[in-house]
Amino acid sequence: MTDEELLRYSRHILLSELNFEGQAKLLTSHALIIGAGGLGCAAALYLASSGVGRLTLIDDDSVDLTNLQRQIAHTTARVGELKVNSLESAIKAINPNVRVNAVTSRATRELLDSILTNEQDKVQVVLDCSDNFRTRHAVNACCAKTKIPLISGSALKMDGQLSTFDTSRALSPCYACLFPPNEEPEEVSCSTMGVFAPLVGIIGTAQANEALKILTDIGEPLTGRLVLFNATRFKWTEIGFKRNLNCPVCKTRD
To answer: Is this model's pTM higher than 0.85 or not?
Structure first.
């Protein structure tokens, strides 16, 4: 670790839970973030500022004026720019040492498989910051197959939710155990229902919190626990759940 890095990350190094060894792990870590919207902006900026050495970003959308109410990495000057490029600029402004791979594409099964099975540039954790169930199930299937921990977050109106799925653990459920693919609810979006601006920051930051814990092997991950957050009451609710023995995804992972 260089002198500049020792100074930059000094407040992490002072933590007994993290210290020098934990920070050194972060500097060589690789996280994949799917979605460069509200959740992805908050998560990416905290992972970058914390010193995660490599970030891969996937999103095919462009910055719109309506995004600026909550997607804090984007700016008025970058309206019309690809979100992954805008987010990369924000990351580099905070920490130029982070290596960013900006992928302008939808998160298809084929793309995810190619990234998550690349042993030469191994991803250690995936953050699903997308906004639709089809993508979430595609991400989950690829993470279950490769046994890479998945941190899934969502936010709509005044409510958010968060959980971690780590199929490297035998008893860990996957996303499909909790939300079966054949029981997908009707799709709703913030463009029609609205979303409270700080809510996406709270959930996205919590996703970063989970990712840092996994990358440094500290604390207790949210495996088998779904956390619900209501912004109007500022209330957190935790619900435990187990692996579904009839889950079609889990049947193929063992």
So the answer is: yes
Q: Report DSSP state, residue 55.
A: E
In sequence order, which residues have a C-beta less than 8 Å from that of residue 166 and are 6 or more positions away?
149, 150, 172, 214, 221, 223
C-alpha to C-alpha distance for 156 and 138, rounded to whole angstroms: 21
Per-residue model confidence as pLDDT tens digits over 30-70: 999 999 999 999 999 999 999 999 999 999 999 999 999 99
- What does R_g of the chain's alpha carbons equal in angstroms? 17
Q: Starting from the edge strand earliest in sequence, which strands make up the sheet with 159-165, in order? A: 99-103, 54-58, 30-34, 125-128, 150-156, 159-165, 225-230, 235-240
Q: Which is the CATH superfamily of the domain at 3-252? A: NAD(P)-binding Rossmann-like Domain (3.40.50.720)
Distance between CA atoms of 175 and 143, rounded to whole angstroms?
10
Question: What is the tens place of the pLDDT at every residue in 208-232?
Answer: 999 999 999 999 999 999 999 999 9
Contacts of 96 (CB under 8 A, 6+ apart): none
19 pLDDT above the threshold of 90: yes
CB 226 within 8 A of CB 238: yes
DSSP secondary structure letters along 167-188? TTSTT---HHHHS-GGGPPPP-
Residue 140 in contact with residue 150, Cβ under 8 Å?
A: yes
**pLDDT tier for residue 193 given thresholds of 50, 70 and 90:** confident
